[in-house]
Amino acid sequence: MNVTLVVCRGTPGDAPREERWTVPFEPGQSVLDALRWIRSHRDATLAIRYSCTNANTCKECMVRIDGKTAYACTARLHEGTMRIEPLPNKRLVRDLVTEIAPPNERLSGV
Ligand code: FES
Questions:
Q1: How far is CA 104 from the centre of its chain?
Q2: pLDDT of res. 100
Q3: Which protein residues are within 6 Å of ligand 1, measured from CB?
Q4: Candidates 30, 56, 87: which one to mutate for ligand 1, based on the most atoms within 8 Å of Cβ?
Q5: pTM for the full model?
Q6: d(CA 68, CA 82)
Q7: Domain residue extents for the chain
Q8: Is the pLDDT reported for residue 62 higher than 70?
Q9: Which of 1, 17, 59, 104 is most solvent-facing, going by the fewest CB within 10 Å?
């Protein structure tokens, strides 16, 4: 089975662009699994962030999946096309990475 991921990418100040990848998968795999596959097999420059991979404890993998905010590590892939975007209400760092740390927990000057 395959899924097509449409990923919204970009950097602050640049117009966002969409890139499409067809990713092989088996039922039960997560969106994060697909994003990691893309980085390993298609484009190592895709910016994503995660720490715990599937424990849903770090909260660092939050993105928009088909228009809804979700954790990429717990959202399941499905056949067809899925659209992945960075969080719209957070400052964009690059691609799917946004600034999610509370202001009082950030390093000064960042
Ligand atoms: S990778 Fe940690 S919550 Fe998703």
A1: 24
A2: 85
A3: 50-53, 56-61, 71, 73
A4: 56
A5: 0.90
A6: 11
A7: 2-105
A8: yes
A9: 104
Identify the pLDDT of residue 7: 98
- Contact between residue 89 and residue 98 where contact means Cβ atoms under 8 Å apart: no
Mutation test of ligand 1: which of 73, 76, 87, 97 has the most ligand atoms closer than 8 Å to its C-beta?
Answer: 73
Phi, psi (rounded to 5 degrees) for 99 = -80, 105
User: Is residue 24 scored above 90 in pLDDT?
Assistant: yes
The helix (run of H) or strand (run of E) holding residue 32 is helix 31-41
Contact 29, 6 (CB under 8 A): no
Nearest residue (CA) to ligand 1, atom 3 = 56
